[in-house]
Design a protein that fits this description.
The chain is 39% helix and 0% strand. The chain is mainly alpha-helical and 140 residues long.
Length: 140
Amino acid sequence: MLPPPILPIVVPEATPKENQDNNLPPPLDPINDPAVLAKIKLIPNIKLLAMLNHGLKFDQVSEEVKALQKFFNTIGNTVAKTGPGSPGKETRKFGYNTLAAVKRFQLKYGVVKSSQQIGFGYVGPGTRAKIKEILSRTLP
């Protein structure tokens, strides 16, 4: 089965000007929030992601995919609001919702510069490195 076509994803963020207008501090990125980092430690099989040395792709089924979905849901990059992939209902299937979550993560954390870049939506070396960087803050 071929993966779906690549579509641009927009990740809205408050601009510094918007924050100044509201007199609000910039929002805390969940990966810098101690409470979120503490929750990451509690994810079952999270070490599967820390030790991941191969890619994850659309239509794949594995325990690593389930750990990835739990990781994304924990850091606020929700895989699905309801049903399969939603918090507490993560699955082993790398489907459309997981693909969208991977793409959002890649754009948000600069793993890819655009939706046209090779590797967009694939959990390859760059994405794994960013995930491992985040996990290194929580795991021994």
